[in-house]
Design a protein that fits this description.
two-stranded parallel sheet, 3 helices, 28% strand, alpha+beta, 3-stranded antiparallel sheet
Length: 145
C-alpha cells in the first residue's frame, strides 16, 4: 500500500521482451513501475506469455515479492492494465487484504481515451472497452493440517 512494486504476475511476451520500447503506450504504467528496462531477463521470462484468449482468465500470485520473499499480512493494491488501442487503455485497481480470512474484491476500472497521430480517441461506447471484463482478486488462506 506504500507504492512499492512487488511482483508482476503476467505481461504479454511481446511487451515484456522489449515491445514496450517499440511502442511506449503498451501498458505504460507497468513498464514504469516494474523497471523492466533494467530487469534481469529471468524475471521477464517468469511472467510473460501469449496474449490471453477471450474468456475467463485466472492468474495466481504466490504471495512473494520480486526477490521471492514471502510478503507479510496486510493490504495490497493490485492492478490489471490493458492497452485497448494505441494510447487508449484501461487500468483496473483494487485493494485486497492478505490475512486470516478469505476475501474477494472487485477492482475499479478507469478508462483513458487519447488520440494518437491519425488515430482518434476511443469513447465510452467503443467496443474495445469490453476487451477486459470484470476484474476480481481472491485471497484464500492456507489452512495447516
Amino acid at each position: 500500500m506504500d507504492g512499492n512494486y512487488l511482483q508482476t504476475i503476467f505481461a504479454t511476451r511481446w511487451t515484456a521482451n522489449g515491445g514496450f520500447a517499440t511502442r511506449p503506450d503498451s501498458i505504460a504504467l507497468w513498464v514504469e513501475k516494474s523497471g523492466i528496462s533494467s530487469m534481469p531477463s529471468y524475471y521477464v521470462d517468469a511472467v510473460s506469455g501469449a496474449t490471453p484468449q477471450t474468456g475467463e482468465v485466472t492468474y495466481v500470485w504466490d504471495l512473494t515479492d520480486v526477490d521471492g520473499n514471502t510478503v507479510t499480512p496486510g493490504e495490497y493494491r493490485f492492478f490489471v492494465e490493458g492497452t485497448l488501442r494505441w494510447k487508449n487503455y484501461v487500468l483496473y485497481s483494487g485493494v485486497i487484504e492478505v490475512g486470516d480470512a478469505p476475501v474477494t474484491v472487485q477492482a475499479d476500472a478507469e478508462f483513458i481515451y487519447e488520440g494518437s497521430g491519425n488515430q482518434s480517441a476511443l469513447t465510452s461506447d467503443s467496443p474495445e472497452n469490453a476487451m477486459i471484463g470484470a476484474v476480481t482478486a481472491t485471497f484464500v488462506p492456507v489452512v495447516d493440517g
